[in-house]
Design goal:
It contains 17 helices and twelve strands. The chain is α/β, with parallel strands linked by helices and about 400 residues long. Helix 4 runs antiparallel to helix 9, helix 6 runs parallel beside helix 17 and helix 13 packs parallel to helix 14. The longest helix has 22 residues.
Length: about 400
């Protein structure tokens, strides 16, 4: 079984699959769609995005770690939960709006921070920002954005949330926080699940296949990474030796002490850490395992969400990401205690396939599916989606 999995990983990331996409077929047998409007679901964007990207960039997007088990289980775990509907409820009008930190949004779907988006489309984060603005969804910008924050803000035309990777140089970390504040970001999401870099085999194998092409635009190593991401412009990064520096609660306290922004910790995967976040006065948490890109054989976020919601008790917002592919997935998370849901790879599939219009269509499809399941379940508003509507499968 192990060898079979490795063989399939190689095949699915190989140039042969890209060639098949170019002829109108994806690895799953889906035809290439001609426009975003012809997509039936978000998976229709996958073969188009893969065809448009280099093998190395596709591998970077799709990689997990080791055998990609955590990445795959993030979505598969939604099968553990089933929906328990109520009947004879008036669902003529459906209200999908949510309120987070005093801001009302048209749906509970947020756009997660994804770095280096120009690797997937020439407009990168600018196209994502335009799509998020058009749809009204909150966008969280990555520290390793390939577009300057000021330019993304111009396109988004509303307050961005900023994601933060800390480093072993406190002055650089403070500089990144200062840049977010100067762009009027109201929320800082500190990623805390990167104490070390994961063994991203799928990415490494894809990079090897595209080695010649990548060498023309990427300087290797940490210094090259810092140089090519504009958030580090103007900061003295000479003493940065790690962006996986010791991540502790004391560091979070230190960050909170130098910013007026609300601070979320992104990467919480246990009730114990969620309780500490509340006790230490954090503004919110994001239940996440980094899309399966850091550690292998982890529980999925949807599996740990109930225990986390039970200790948080609605005292702070609980966001969640990881494996969301359908409106039913969003519904289940809301029922189990999430305040909002973040998507990453899905909107990048749309971006890679068609740019801004692809991102918009991905959001639209997920929101439409959410409306359908809300009607079917007898929940006319997000606030009506409670734990009684979901059961964990027996056995």
């Amino acid at each position: 079984m192990y060898n079979r999995r490795r063989f399939l990983q190689y095949v699915l990331g190989s140039p042969a699959i890209v060639a098949a996409c170019a002829k109108g077929q994806s690895g799953s047998g889906r035809p290439l769609i001609a426009s975003p409007g012809t997509a039936f679901d978000i998976f229709d964007f996958v073969p188009v995005a893969q065809k448009n990207m280099s093998s190395a960039h596709w591998a970077y997007l799709m990689t997990g770690v080791d055998d990609d088990l955590t990445r795959d289980w993030n979505h598969e775990a939604f099968r553990l939960f089933q929906i328990r509907p109520r009947r004879l409820v008036d669902v003529t009008r459906i209200d999908t709006t949510v309120e987070i930190f005093g801001q009302r949004y048209p749906s509970p779907i947020f756009l997660d921070p994804v770095g280096s988006q120009r690797a997937f489309h020439s407009d990168g984060e600018l196209a994502t920002a335009r799509a998020a603005r058009a749809r009204g969804n909150q966008m969280i910008l990555s520290t390793v954005t390939s577009t300057a924050m000021r330019d993304v803000v111009k396109e988004y035309q509303r307050p961005l949330w900023s994601q933060l990777y800390t480093s072993d140089d406190w002055e650089v970390t403070k500089g990144l926080i200062r840049k977010a504040e100067e762009s009027d970001c109201p929320v800082l999401a500190v990623t805390v699940d990167t104490p070390s870099s994961g063994n991203r085999e799928t990415m490494l194998r894809g990079g090897r296949r595209g080695e010649g092409e990548c060498a023309t635009c990427h300087e290797p190593g940490l210094k090259g990474m810092l140089k090519e991401h504009p958030m580090y412009e103007g900061l003295n990064v000479a003493r940065v030796h790690s962006v996986t520096n010791p991540l502790t609660w004391e560091l979070i306290d230190r960050i909170r002490g130098v910013t007026r922004m609300k601070v979320l910790v992104k990467g919480i995967m246990s009730a114990e850490d969620a309780r500490l976040a509340v006790e230490r006065g954090l503004d919110g948490i994001v239940v996440s395992n980094h899309g399966g890109r850091q550690e292998e054989t982890l529980l999925s976020p949807i599996e740990v969400l109930p225990e986390i919601a039970a200790v948080v008790k609605n005292r702070i917002p609980v966001l969640i990401d990881g494996g969301f592919r359908r409106g039913t997935d969003v519904f289940k998370a809301l029922a189990l205690g999430a305040s909002a849901v973040g998507i990453g790879r899905p909107y990048i599939w749309g971006l890679g396939a068609f740019g801004q219009s692809g991102v918009e269509r991905v959001i639209q499809l997920l929101e439409a599916e959410l409306v359908i399941v809300m009607k079917q379940s007898g929940t006319p508003a997000i606030a009506k989606i409670t734990p009684e509507f979901v059961r964990r499968r027996a056995g």
